[in-house]
Backbone:
C-alpha cells in the first residue's frame, strides 16, 4: 500500500536523519521502529532520508537488511505493513565512520550535499542523533563542525546521561555548544514523551477543579516511583560507573517532579514550560551531609526470585564482587517555594524489584473535620495515581458510601481513566513523538542546558556524601520492593509507600 502525502506531514520540512550508533541497540530497538510507525502513518516528510553511521563495515544493502530484521523483531505483527517497511528501508543509507578518527568524514559531507532535489526547493533539516557513548558527544560534534555539514537548520539530539557530575556535564555542554547553538540542541528524556506525562499538564492546567487543591494546603505529600524487574543486563559496564542516582534520579525522576510541582506557564509551549521546570529545580532544598544521611537510602539487589524465576545478584551480574554501586535509591526531597513549602516529595527507583512500574501519586490531606463519627468501614486519604507505564492512565481514589439501608458504611473507591480503553486510537511511543518534535524544531519536551546543570547541582552533594560515607548500599532480595530502610524513610514521617495493585 502506497500512502499519499497526508495532512500529518503537511508543513514539515524534508529531513536527513543521521543516527550515530546506527547499528546499536537503541537505534535498532527504539529509533528505527519509531520512525517506521511515523512512516506507517504517513507522517515522515517526502524526501526524508535515514543515514546510519557506525564503525561496523556495512554497505547500504547490509544495513537495510539489519533494519528490516529489527522492524520484524521490535514491531508487533499486527502493526507490520510490508509496504511501509519497504518505504522506510528505501530511505536508509549507511556510512562506516569512527567518531575519534578524522578520516572518512568527507563521505558524510558528500552524502548530505549530494541528495535528490526536493520538490519546491524546501530547505532540508539535518538531524544528528547521538545514540553513542556520552564520551563521544563532543568529539562527534567537533567532526561534524570540521566536515562543514552543520547549518542553521541543523539539530543535534543527545541521549542521557549528560555527564557524570556537574563539571563533566558542563564540559559536554561546552564541547557540543562550540558547534551547535543552544536552540539547535535537543537533550532527550523519553519519559517526557509518554502520553500520561504530557496528560499531567493537561490534567492540571485544563481542568479547574484540581488546580486550587494543588498546593501545600491540601496536598500531604507526593510519591514518584520508577521500578524495574530487569537487572543491568548487558549494560553492566556502564551501569557500574553510574548507578541508579545518576542513571534515573538526576534525569527521569527529577523531570517528573518538575512537571508535578511547576507553576502554570503563560501557555504550554517552547521555552515557557522549560522556564517553569528550571524554577522547580532551583527551589529544591540543598542536601547537607546530614540531610543525605537522614533523607536518602541506597540499595543493591541480591539473588532472588522475579516472576517465579531465580535471578542472580547484582555483583554476579557484573562479575565484580567488590562493587559499591547502588541499584536502588529512595530520596526525600523538598521544594522550597510558596506553593510547596512543607510538602515532602518521595522519589524511589530500583532494578530487580517486584514489578515494572512508573507512577506518580499525589496524596491529599485528610478532611479537616470528621463528619461521620459513627460510620462503619474504613477511609483513606484521597489520592491521584498517574500511571506512566506499563498501563498508562489515571486513578482518583475517593471515599464513598456503600449502598444499603441502615447506617453509613464508608468504602474506598476509584475513578479510573485507562488510555487503552478510553481512546480507540493507538498511543504513540514516546520516541515517535519526540523524534517528530525534533524535525519540527519544537524543544518543549527536551531539557535545556540550565535544567541539566541545575539537576546536577542538587544531586552532586548526595554523590559526594555517599562516596565519603563508609556504609555500603543496603541489600534487598531481587523481586521485592527494595530495602526496608526505604519503608522506614516514610514511616518516620508517619507515611507509607502507596503500592499499586499488581
Residues:
Amino acid at each position: 500500500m502506497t500512502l499519499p502525502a497526508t495532512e500529518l506531514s503537511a508543513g514539515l520540512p524534508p529531513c536527513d536523519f543521521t543516527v550515530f550508533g546506527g547499528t546499536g541497540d537503541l537505534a535498532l530497538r527504539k529509533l528505527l521502529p519509531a520512525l517506521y510507525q511515523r512512516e506507517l502513518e504517513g507522517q515522515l516528510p517526502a524526501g526524508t532520508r535515514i543515514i546510519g553511521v557506525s564503525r561496523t563495515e556495512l554497505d547500504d544493502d547490509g544495513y537495510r537488511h539489519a533494519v528490516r530484521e529489527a522492524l520484524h523483531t521490535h514491531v508487533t505483527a499486527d502493526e507490520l505493513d510490508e509496504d511501509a517497511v519497504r518505504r522506510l528501508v528505501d530511505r536508509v543509507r549507511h556510512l562506516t565512520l569512527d567518531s575519534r578518527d578524522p578520516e572518512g568524514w568527507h563521505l558524510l559531507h558528500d552524502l548530505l550535499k549530494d541528495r535528490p532535489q526536493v520538490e519546491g526547493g524546501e530547505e532540508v533539516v539535518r538531524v544528528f542523533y547521538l545514540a553513542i557513548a556520552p564520551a563521544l558527544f563532543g568529539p562527534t560534534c567537533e567532526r561534524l563542525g570540521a566536515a562543514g555539514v552543520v547549518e542553521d537548520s541543523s539539530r543535534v539530539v543527545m541521549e542521557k546521561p549528560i555527564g557524570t557530575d556537574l563539571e563533566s556535564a558542563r564540559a559536554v555542554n561546552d564541547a557540543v555548544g562550540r558547534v551547535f547553538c543552544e536552540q539547535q540542541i535537543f537533550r532527550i528524556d523519553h519519559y517526557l514523551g509518554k502520553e500520561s506525562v504530557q496528560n499531567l499538564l493537561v490534567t492540571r492546567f485544563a481542568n479547574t477543579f484540581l488546580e486550587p487543591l494543588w498546593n501545600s494546603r491540601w496536598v500531604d505529600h507526593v510519591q514518584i516511583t520508577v521500578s524495574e524487574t530487569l537487572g543491568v543486563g548487558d549494560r553492566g559496564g556502564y551501569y557500574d560507573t553510574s548507578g541508579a542516582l545518576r542513571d534515573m534520579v538526576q534525569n527521569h525522576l527529577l523531570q517528573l517532579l518538575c512537571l508535578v510541582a511547576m507553576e502554570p506557564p503563560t501557555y504550554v509551549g517552547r521555552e515557557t514550560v522549560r522556564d517553569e521546570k528550571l524554577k522547580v529545580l532551583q527551589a529544591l532544598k540543598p542536601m547537607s551531609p546530614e540531610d543525605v544521611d537522614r533523607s536518602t537510602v541506597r540499595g543493591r539487589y541480591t539473588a532472588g526470585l522475579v516472576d517465579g524465576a531465580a535471578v542472580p545478584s547484582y555483583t554476579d551480574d557484573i562479575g565484580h564482587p567488590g562493587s559499591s554501586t547502588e541499584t536502588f535509591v529512595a530520596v526525600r526531597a523538598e521544594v522550597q517555594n510558596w506553593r510547596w513549602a512543607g510538602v515532602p516529595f518521595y522519589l524511589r527507583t530500583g532494578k530487580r524489584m517486584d514489578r515494572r512500574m512508573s507512577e506518580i501519586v499525589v496524596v491529599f490531606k485528610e478532611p479537616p473535620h470528621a463528619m461521620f463519627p459513627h460510620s462503619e468501614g474504613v477511609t483513606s486519604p484521597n489520592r491521584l495515581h498517574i500511571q506512566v507505564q506499563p498501563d498508562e492512565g489515571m486513578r482518583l481514589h475517593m471515599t464513598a458510601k456503600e449502598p444499603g439501608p441502615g447506617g453509613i458504611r464508608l468504602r474506598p473507591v476509584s475513578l479510573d481513566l485507562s488510555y487503552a480503553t478510553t481512546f480507540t486510537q493507538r498511543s504513540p511511543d514516546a520516541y515517535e513523538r519526540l523524534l517528530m518534535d525534533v524535525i519540527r524544531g519544537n524543544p518543549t519536551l527536551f531539557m535545556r542546558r540550565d535544567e541539566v546543570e541545575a539537576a546536577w547541582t542538587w544531586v552532586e552533594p548526595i554523590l559526594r556524601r555517599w562516596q565519603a560515607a563508609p556504609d555500603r548500599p543496603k541489600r534487598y532480595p531481587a523481586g521485592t520492593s527494595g530495602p526496608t530502610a526505604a519503608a522506614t524513610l516514610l514511616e518516620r514521617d508517619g507515611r507509607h509507600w502507596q503500592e499499586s495493585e499488581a
